[in-house]
Every structure is written in C-alpha cells, then in structure tokens.
Amino acid sequence: MKSNMYRFVILVSIALLLSGVSALAVEMKNSDNSIPTNVVDSTGGSSESTDFRIYQVVGQATPVGESTDETSTYMLQAGHIYTLNTGLTVAPSALTIESIYISGTRFLSGDIIPASGHIRAHLLDQNGVVLAQARIYSSVTYVDLSLTSGTSTDGYWVGDYSVGEGAHTITIWTQDGLGNQTEPAVGAARVMGGTVQVVGTPLNYPNPFSPLSDDPTRRTTRIQYSLSSNANIILAIYDITGKEVKRIVSGAGQDGGKAGVNSVYWNGKTIFGDTASNGMFVYKIIAGGKVIATGKLVVLD
C-alpha cells in the first residue's frame, strides 16, 4: 500500500514538472520579443534577414521548439547563445550602462551640462563592445567614444563633444562583438547661454554643522548649487556683522565653477586658520564681481 502511494506521489511530481517545462516553452513562443535582425556565426558569416526559426539553446539539452520549423518569436535571454535553423547563432546583447560622467560630474537626466566638454561612459557587455558613440539629439551630434581603461566587456569609453544651447537628449549607441546593436536612452540635458546664473536655490548640509564634533560627518558642510554655464566663482562667507571670514575660489569648469551641479566644502576654518565661533553665517556666490545667489548656514559646536 505504501509503495503504491509512493509511486503515485512520484508520478504526480513528474507530471507537475513536465507541466512547468511545457508552460515555459509556451511563454517563450508567445513572447513579443523577436530574434534580432543581425546575427553572426562563429566563422563571421552574417545575415540581415528576419526569417529565422530558433529551436535550440546552445549548451542546453532541451530544445526551445520541437523542430527546426518552429515559430520565430521567442523570449531571448542575455547570456544564452541560440542556434537558428539557418546554422547561424545569435546571442542577445547584454549592454549595461553603469554610469555616465559629463566633464567629471555624474550625469542624471535633466542636468545642465556645459556647451563643450567630455563624456565618460562605463559600459558593461558580456559580448564585448566593439564600437561606441554618444548621440546628442536636437543638435544631432555623434561623438565617437574610445576605450581608455578596462576591457571591452567592462571598460570606460571617453569622447569630447560640443553642442549648441537648448534641450538635448543623450543616448549611447554600441555594437558588440556579435554584431548586436543597441541604443539605450540615457536622459535629457540642457545647455544654457547668456550671463552665468545660479539655477534653483543653493543648499548646504549638514546645517547646522559642528567643526569640533567627534563625528567626522558633521565637521564639514557641503554647499551645493547649480550654474547655468562655466564661470570663475568666489564663495564668500560672512558673519552676522558683515565681516568676511572665508573666501573659496573656483575656476571656470572646475568643481565650484562648472555648468551644472557644484559642491563646495567649508570645514569652519576662517581666513586666519581659526575655527569659526557658534552662530549664523551668510554665504554669497559671486561671478564677475556680481552676487548671483546667497544662502545661510549655522555653526553649532
């Protein structure tokens, strides 16, 4: 009796397993993702035709389809190489954009960028990046990127750019070692003209901060602001009597004086090397002899 029950459990388990495998196959066949239009075989042959029928995952015993005449739409997974009924193989690109830096600052969609500078892209692709471009639309600029460090599968690609004023969309176009082409969107950017200005409201944190604190995270305050363009900037800090206690100078294009987000740090030390007394201070952001923004901060030890 027990052995019959044992056989019954085994049969049910096998049936459930086969059901799961069948469901997986159906899911793959009904996917809207189709085979890439450009595939390359191991000998370098290629074809632009889209009339392929995929039936086998290389290295796996279970076919995707039941024969070489299976339908041609499947869910392709990065990291798997697929055999087609033509004898060609295809490996979906696994491009990942780890980070983008514009003139040394990590880029986020919506940022202000300088009209000219350099793009540094950290690209990951298991098939190896062969060609890479940054495409800056509206001005339709194509910036060829060169591998400067790392490897083609995990490396840093850099190129110089120059664009006009206005709104732009930045994308990264690549081609990998198997001929797959990708163009992932990176985000929107703005180039602003005219006299330099602070965009938005300057902020500093922590605020209050404590130059004599045992906590190193509270000894320095970070003053952050966005500039519309590169400019020589003076950050002047005054006590409540209007006396200047500190002056920090940043060159155009450097952190503190570059288009986009800037960060300037103050450790509470005065012009004479003393630690500022407790109280409120006013800082002024100055460009070309003109105050373009102000803010307040507090020293509290």
Element layout with pairings:
Layout: H1 2-29, E1 39-40, E2 46-47, E3 54-57, E4 82-84, E5 89-90, E6 96-102, E7 105-106, E8 111-112, E9 116-124, E10 129-137, E11 141-144, E12 146-150, E13 154-162, E14 166-176, E15 181-182, E16 185-191, E17 198-205, E18 221-227, E19 233-238, E20 244-250, E21 260-266, E22 279-287, E23 290-299
Parallel strand pairs: 8-16
Antiparallel strand pairs: 1-2, 3-4, 4-5, 6-7, 6-9, 9-13, 10-11, 10-14, 12-13, 14-15, 14-16, 17-18, 18-21, 19-20, 19-22, 22-23
Query: Based on helices, strands and strand pairing, what is the structural class?
Result: mainly beta
Tally of extended strands? 23
The description of the largest β-sheet is: 6 strands, mixed
How many structural units, i.e. domains? Answer: 3
Helix and strand pattern = HEEEEEEEEEEEEEEEEEEEEEEE
Quick summary:
The protein is mainly beta and 301 residues long. The protein has one helix at 2-29; strands at residues 39-40, 46-47, 54-57, 82-84, 89-90, 96-102, 105-106, 111-112, 116-124, 129-137, 141-144, 146-150, 154-162, 166-176, 181-182, 185-191, 198-205, 221-227, 233-238, 244-250, 260-266, 279-287, 290-299. It has 3 domains: 28-92, no CATH class; 96-191, Immunoglobulin-like (Sandwich); 198-299, Immunoglobulin-like.
